[in-house]
Structure formats: structure tokens, C-alpha cells
Amino acid sequence: VNQVANLTLVSSARDVVSTPYAYTKESHPYIKSVCDAAEKGVKSVTEAAASCVQPVLTTLEPHVAAASEYASKGLNKLGGKLPVLQKPVEQIISDTKELVSSRVAEAKDAVSS
């Protein structure tokens, strides 16, 4: 999970979403109260689930470690094959706009000639 969260694409997407979320919460008191309640609910459910699952995880720790190792290797391989995962969202959007503009210009030139 940490490895996925640290991918440039994922962390930049989190930043893109969290900034307007924080701004909206601070700018609108009614939305803030709803968001705070939702966050508290998610935190409570997460804590309850973690306490229930902890004994099972302790028993399965060697298997979880093996699965984590396998997943880590898979993510490393995926990162090598998909370099887009190492780019921030803003760059992906910019590159996409540039590509679309280029293709549209090529099509326009082809049609006009």
C-alpha cells in the first residue's frame, strides 16, 4: 500500500484532490461539519476493523509478508513497463492535451490539403 501511495501519479492525484477538499471544508461551514462527521465515521470503522483483523493478521503474518513481497516485485515491474506511473497528474494532462492538439492539427492539415 505504501509503495502504491508513493507512486508519483498516485501522490500527485492525492494532492490534486486534497487541496480543493481542504479549501472547500474551510470555506463552507456546513460542508465542513458534514466532512468532519464522515471523516470521524471512517476513522472509527477503520479502527474497529483493524482491532478485529489484528489477531488474524498476526497468525497470517508470514503469508502476508510473502504476498507483500510478491506485490512489491509486481509493482516494480509494472513501474518499469508503465512510466506514466512516475509522472505527476499535471504532466499527464499537459502531455495529453499536447498530443490531442498535435493530432487535430495533423488531421486539419490532411483535410485542407
TrEMBL record:
GO cellular component labels: cytosol; lipid droplet
Pfam family, one: Perilipin
Compartments (UniProt record): Lipid droplet
BP GO annotations: lipid storage; positive regulation of triglyceride storage
Main location: other
Keywords, ordered alphabetically: Lipid droplet
Family statement drawn from the similarity comment of this UniProt entry: Belongs to the perilipin family.
Protein name: PLIN3 protein
Organism for this UniProt entry: Urocolius indicus (Red-faced mousebird)
Lineage: Eukaryota, Metazoa, Chordata, Craniata, Vertebrata
GN (gene name): Plin3_3
